Structure formats: C-alpha cells, structure tokens
Amino acid sequence: MKLIIRILSTLLMLTGICSVVSAQNTEEPLFQIRGFCISAPRPDGVERFVKFIDEELATRGVNTLVLLVDYGFKFESYPELADSAALSKSDCRKIVKVCRKNNIRIIPQINLLGHQSWANHPNPLLTHFPEFDETPWVKMPEKYVWPNADGLYCKSYCPLHPEVHKVIFALVDELCDAFDAEAFHAGMDEVFYLGDDKCPRCSGIDKAVLFADEVRKIRDHLALKNREMWIWGDRLIDGKTSGMGIWEASYNFTYRAIDMIPKDVVICDWHYERPDQTPVYFALKGFRVITCPWRTPATAVIQAEDMAKFRKYATPEMKPRYYGMMQTTWSNPERFINGFYGIKTNDARPGTNQQDPAKNPWDTFRAMYKRMDELSSMK
Prior knowledge:
Elements: H1 2-26, E1 33-39, H2 46-57, E2 64-68, H3 89-101, E3 105-112, E4 117-118, E5 121-122, H4 124-128, H5 164-178, E6 183-187, H6 207-223, E7 228-232, H7 239-242, H8 245-248, E8 266-270, H9 278-284, E9 289-292, H10 297-312, E10 322-328, H11 333-340, H12 361-378
Helix pairs in contact: 2-3, 10-12
C-alpha cells in the first residue's frame, strides 16, 4: 500500500511540474511586438537590405517590420503615382521571402491624411490629384522654412472629397497584396491641416470627428480582407494639457478622437527625447500600444523598462495592451546600414550624426534590443 501511495504521489508531482512547464511555455512573451520601422529600399538596395534582415534583424528576434513605402512601389492601379525609383513586385517578393523565412511580419505604410507634401513640393497624390488638397490656396514655397505665415508643415488631403478613397484604397490594397500583408500602417501623424475654414466640404466640422471618421473608413476597408490597421498615436494626445507640444501631440483638438475610433486599431506611440508615460493612457482607453524610440539610446532603454513594468503590474485586462517596442529610423536602409556598420559618409542630416553615439538610430536599435533581451530573460 505504501508503495502504491508513493507511486501515486510521484505521478501527481510530475503532473504538477509538467503543468507549470506547460504554462510557462505557453505564456505570452514580455514584448509581443519586437519591431523595426524603416523606409523601403530603392531597387538597387534590395539585396543589401535582404541581407541585413537575415543577419541583423532576424538574429535579434525582430518579428515585425514596418516598411515605409509610400509611393515607392510600381502601382498598376495608378502608375503615375509611383516614384521614379520604385519597387517592383519581384523586389517585394525578395523581401517577403527573407521575412517569411525568419517569421517576420511585414506591415507596409502609406502616409494617409497628412504628410502629403514635404519641404517645398507636394507628394505624388496631390501632384496628380490636386483637387484632393485640403488647402489648395496654400502654395508651396520656393524655399521652405518653419515657422511660416501659412502654418505649413505638410499638406493634407481632404477626407471628405468624394473621389479620394477610391484612389487611396486602390493603392493600399495593391501594396498589401504585394507584401502578403495582414496589416497596414496608415501613418496619420502630424496632421496640421484638417477641417480648414475655407474647405467647401469640411469647414465647420469637428476636427476630432473628421479624424475619427477617416480612421474608421480606412479601418473598415482593411477589415474587408481581414487586415489590421496601425497608426501613429500623436494626434490622439492633448498637446497643451500634456505639455507635449504640437509635434508629439495635437493642438487642433483631434485628440478627442481617441474615444471615437475602433479599439482594434494598433497605436504606435512615439517619443524620442523623453520616456513619456503615454502607453498607460492608450492602454486605459482600450488600445494595444507599441512604444517607438528613434535616436536616443538612453531614452529607448528606459522605455523598454517601462513597457516591461507596465505589463508586470497590469491587470489581466490591461496586460495584453502593452504590446511591445518598435525601433524607428527615419532614414533609408542604405543610410541606416552604413551607420550600423560604421561606414563613414558625409551625411549630416538629423538622426545620422555618426560622431555622436548618443544621437543616432543604429546605436539606439542595439541598446533597445539588448535591454529587451535582458528584461525578457528576467521575466
């Protein structure tokens, strides 16, 4: 009888251990999203980019690649909107192949609503469809400076123009198909022109409603093919109350749209110089949120530690909303890879300072992923 009891006790103990191990093995990772965001390569840079994905992104456990394509793709629906050096479907397949090999999810981006111009020239959408311009009376300057009398940072398309969605949805669908994408990043950051008083369609309409309606239209279109919508989070933060200003947050009241948009939209929350605690705000509002550093390693490390802390002490309802981290680069792959490998160039643009390791995206990338791995191992 004692032998039988001992055998039964041993079996129960082993069963308990197996259950614990099984629970540990099925537990969600500390950082569900381990992301990397960069501009799409030019066709002549695809092979080098593919090699970088295989050798540097995959080895660090990157599982999500947000690719800023915009008009850098040979669109068939509206070929006139493609940049001169645009990716072909064949180029896209090469990137898809290496990402699939390494279990990396590709999420392509086209900036929608805002960012329809840069410096002194409009982007292809407004070049070829000037009727979509929210503020056609604001002329592009010969030499761009900020601030300026028109409050011009970037142009926007009018979200109530009756033909605009026919065009942009065709581009979105085509790009998602080319990358076999199950999600799409719509940008929608730094929207300064919206609901302008002179616009014949949206003058007088609540800017928060305009912004929320545009999010919902895009989200609903993506949902037709079971695709998820991602956006930057700055327009959903009150810039004056928070003190975060006109760039990282909103001065034109779009922040109230946070209570009007679907909760399955994923928020990419970017703060580059301070580790602001806004992930808690987005999570409390019901959204999955990803913290997005850029060029300051020390800030990125704190942000990774904060995300780990938020998850650790969260309720079961809140925990999955702290979705992860994504390194942003705001450069083309050629520039980033050169910096990453210490290849000296004469590029002096912001975020590419190779003489100051405290102010560049490649060292931020290394520092962030190193700390993420340390935190994951301690979980």
